[in-house]
Specification:
Shape: flat
Number of helices: 16
Oligomer: single chain
Largest sheet: 5 strands, parallel
Radius of gyration: 29 Å
Low-confidence stretches: 179-185
Length: 393
């Protein structure tokens, strides 16, 4: 469909090559500009014009190639595109100003929210959109998707938008963090190396050069000596928050994970979502059917382990303070009970938070977790990780 543009450019004397035209098509296919005529114009000019002397010729060619485009109506475009129904429905999604959001009241507590949801499910018989009461979409109701409420239950929405949901009624899938990511810098590795306790253990398969020289001198013949390889004997238990509000931090999480894999021989990793409850898991693909009871983890790994928890600590306070407040399931014991058990079992503990430290005071849940962990929370920066490693000792 862009071949007429290429031909018009050549006719108007713009020396555009086939290679440049293919580069322009690749940029369009990559989605660099979508439904933006002005942006499309600048994209075409950037990729197809290599000499500013030809800008006027390009403008004439562009206007000629797309003459009459401005006369096409939006209705004609929609009819021609045959957009899926769900795309059009999402156009009704509300985009509220901060003042409008502040005017929307919460139901008044976790118990009231759950009881109201039970009533709505019993009474509702049809789909709703744009309302403030029923389970629906694009409204201000506490229940549904693609809307806004200061405290609600998210139902049928693939990802978070405002990080305000108290619970999520969906079986979401998270992927494992990669442990083979090549770090752009070695800063995290350098910081983690401060947490070292060297020991020689295992089979004696490393050449002991000093010992060989000494034994040879003593005995008068070549007496080769070997010894176990020296390894970092520090044992680390790593809990990683995954999914939801942690999605923007996947890259830096993978860098930290890779650095930890490289530095610690004794590293045990578990995943959790938002807060540690009665179950954690080793593989995100099986987090619903192959969880490890947290009580087993507490019994299995001794207090000599260094416990590092990585998460943004951003959640509804109910997830920490209330039984049943967990985001995706019904927990018999409140999150704070399990977090205190973790902090007591492993006195050498640390919480690493990828959110900048300046934003912590604005999050109620972050303040709660810092209190539970006696203030042992550091930002995921070079200085923060270094400071935390020194605290672990």
């Amino acid at each position: 469909m862009f071949l007429p543009l290429f031909q018009t450019l050549r006719t108007e004397g713009v020396p555009v090559s086939l290679r440049e035209f293919l580069g322009f098509l690749e940029a369009v296919a990559a989605g660099l500009v979508t439904y933006d005529p002005t942006g499309f114009y600048y994209l075409a000019r950037t990729t197809l014009v290599k000499d500013e002397r030809h800008l006027d010729r390009f403008d004439r060619a562009f206007a000629k190639a797309f003459e009459g485009l401005e006369a096409i109506s939006a209705d004609q475009v929609l009819e021609a595109l045959d957009l899926p129904r769900e795309w059009l429905e999402k156009l009704a999604e509300k985009h509220l100003s901060p003042e409008e959001r502040a005017a929307i009241a919460a139901l008044g507590g976790f118990d009231a929210l759950m009881e109201t949801l039970r009533q709505r499910l019993a009474e509702q018989a049809s789909r709703h959109q744009g309302g403030s009461k029923w389970v629906g979409t694009a409204g201000t109701s506490p229940f549904g998707a693609y809307g806004y409420n200061p405290e609600g239950v998210r139902i049928g929405q693939d990802q978070s938008r405002h990080q305000r949901a108290v619970k999520v009624w969906d079986k979401r899938e998270f992927r494992n963090l990669a442990d083979d990511v090549e770090l752009g810098t070695r800063n995290i590795k350098v910081a983690l190396r401060r947490l070292r306790k060297w020991a020689r253990e295992g089979a004696a398969d490393e050449l002991d050069l000093d010992g060989t020289i000494r034994a040879t001198a003593e005995h008068g013949w070549l007496d080769v000596q070997t010894r176990p390889e020296r390894r970092n004997a520090v044992k680390v238990l790593l809990f990683l928050d995954i999914g939801g509000s942690m999605d923007p931090y996947v890259k830096v999480m993978e860098e930290l994970f890779s650095a930890a894999r490289a530095e610690f021989k004794h590293l045990v990793t578990f995943y959790f979502h938002n807060c540690i409850y009665e179950g954690v898991w080793r593989d995100n693909r099986r987090r619903w059917d192959a969880q490890t009871p947290t009580s087993d983890v507490l019994r299995t790994y001794g207090s000599d382990y260094r416990c590092i928890i990585v998460g943004d600590a951003a959640m509804s306070p109910y997830e920490i303070l209330h039984p049943g407040g967990a985001n995706e399931h019904w927990n018999a014991e409140a999150g704070q009970v399990w977090l205190r058990r973790v902090s007591e079992q492993w006195p050498h503990h640390l919480w690493i938070n990828p959110v900048p430290e300046t934003g912590w005071q604005h999050s109620h849940s972050t303040r709660l977790i810092r209190e539970i962990f006696d203030g042992k929370m550091v930002p995921m920066t070079l200085e923060g990780v270094g400071r935390g490693v020194r605290q672990l000792g």
